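User: Could you check the structure of this?
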Amino acid sequence: MARSTTHSARGGIGWVLVLAAAAVGAVAFYIVTPKEESSGESLIHVAISAEALFNVGPLVVTNSMVGAVLAAVILLAGAWYVTRQATLVPGRLQSMLELPVEYMANIASGSTSRWRSYVALVIGLFLMILVANWLGLLPGVGTIGLVHHEEGHETLAPFVRPASADLNFTLGLAIITFVTFVWWAVRLHGPIGYLRELVGEPRYMAPLMFPIHLISELSRLVSLSMRLFGNVFAGEVLLATMLALTTAAVFVLPLAFFVPAVFLGLELIFGAVQALVFALLTMTYITMAIAEREGGHGADEHKADDEHAATTPEDRSPSPA
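Assistant: Sure, the predicted C-alpha cells are below.
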C-alpha cells in the first residue's frame, strides 16, 4: 500500500514537471517566434554603438555611460570600505578587495625602479576594466530597457550596458595610456631625445624609419582600444546568441539553463584576462619608455636614494667600542 502510494506520488510529480516544462517551452517558443508582420527579423539584437537614453542639455547619456558610472561607484564604495573599515587582521571582504591591488602591485614592482610613480595608473585601469566587464554579467544588464520602434522593427535599448562594449570607453582608456607613456619618454629623454628615438639609427635611414616608428607608436593607441572593445563586444554577442538558441526550441529547454551558465563562466574568466592584458600592456609601454634611462645613471641615482631612505639613524650611528 505504501509502495503504491509512493509510486503514484512520483508519477504525479513527474506529470507536474512535464506540464511545467511544456508550458515554459510554449511560452518561450511564442515569445521568440517572429510574428507574420515581422518575418525575417533576427532573434537577437546587439547594437555596436551605445544607445542613447536621455539628454542632459547638450550631453547625450548612453547606456554604456551608465555602466561606466556604476563601475566607478562600485570601486569608490570598495575604496571607502578599505580606507574606513580596514582592520589589521583582514576579514574575507577586505582580503578579497586587497587581493587584486596587491597582485598588480607585485607585478609592477619588478618592472622598473620608478614603479611607484605609475603603479596607481596600472591598478586603476585593471580594476576599472575588471568591474566594467563583470558588471555586464549581472542579471538585467543588457536585457532590461526601453523598446523603440524604428522602421517597423522593435529594438531594445538597455538601461545598462557593459562600458567596455563601447569603443568610446576603450578609446578613452587607450588615450590615457598613450599620453602617459609618451609623457614618460619626453620627461626622461627630452623632446629632442624622443624625436631621435623615432628617427632611429642610422640617420640616413630617417626618411624611411621615422614614418614607420611614428605609425608604430600610434598603432598602440588603436590596438589597445580595439582589442578590448572587440573581445568584450564579441562576448556580449555570444551570450545573446546562446540565450536565443537555447530558448528558441522546446526540445532543448533543459539546455537553456546549462549552456548560458557555461558561457557566463567563460566570460567571467575572459573579462579578468582582458583587464589584465590592458593593464600589463600599459605597464610594458611605460617600462619601454623608461628602459634606456634606467639602464644608465638614472638607475644608480634611484638605487642610491632608496638605500639612503632605507638607512635609519640607528644604522648611521657609530657602534659602541
